[in-house]
Structures are given as structure tokens and as C-alpha cells.
Design brief:
The protein is α+β, with helices and mostly antiparallel strands. The chain is built from 3 helices and 6 strands; from the N terminus they run αβββααβββ.
């Protein structure tokens, strides 16, 4: 039997993939979520590396940073990337929508909230 949390997270990865493709990106998904990033989205101008998470709790930068500190630390270890590449953390807040963050070496910057 497949883990309920895995299925919940996977469904949000597919939702994010579908939304990115609808906006013109070519998107690949890391099956089984064994890598640091769940999705890689590519356009003519940008490459975006995305880790997708789901939560039932309120998501603020402080909450997100504390809750996903190990994931954020792993994202920050990826340093050899082109200048046109972003590292992002997308958190699905149940019954609300996405809270999206850009992950830099020193900051977690929220850039979008509650977009379906």
C-alpha cells in the first residue's frame, strides 16, 4: 500500500507541473522524489529547480524555514548552476493554494501567495 503522505505530495507535484506547462515551460518530474528537486522547469530564458511540499498549517517564511530547514539546506548545497537558474520551494497550503519561495544562499524570499 502506498503511503498517504507520498500520494498527497505527488498529486501537488503533478499540479505544479501542469501549471508550469500551461505557462509555457517544459517540465520534468523526478520520479519517487529521490533528488533534491522534484521538478525542473525550462523556458527559453530560465531554468527553475523546484522542491514541492504540502502542509495543512499556516505557512509563513519563519514557519517554512523552521519546518523545512533540512530541505532548504539541501537546496542551498546546489551551487554550480547557471546565472539564469533559480532554486525554489513551493509549499501547498491546504484549502488555500501555493506559497512560493526563492531560495538563495542566505534568504528565503516569498514571491507568490495563494495562487491556484
Amino acid at each position: 500500500m502506498t503511503n498517504k503522505n507520498y500520494l498527497r505530495g505527488r498529486s501537488k507535484e503533478y499540479l505544479a507541473k501542469k501549471q508550469l506547462e500551461a505557462n509555457g515551460s517544459y517540465v520534468t518530474r523526478s520520479a519517487g522524489s529521490k533528488g533534491i528537486f522534484d521538478l525542473v522547469a525550462i523556458t527559453h530564458e530560465r531554468v527553475t529547480l523546484i522542491q514541492v511540499k504540502t502542509t495543512k498549517r499556516v505557512s509563513s517564511p519563519n514557519f517554512t524555514e523552521a519546518t523545512y530547514r533540512l530541505d532548504i539546506a539541501a537546496i542551498r548545497t546546489v551551487t554550480k548552476i547557471p546565472t539564469n537558474c533559480d532554486k525554489q520551494l513551493w509549499v501547498w497550503l491546504d484549502h488555500k493554494g501555493w506559497v512560493k519561495y526563492k531560495v538563495t544562499d542566505t534568504e528565503l524570499i516569498e514571491f507568490e501567495r495563494f495562487q491556484y
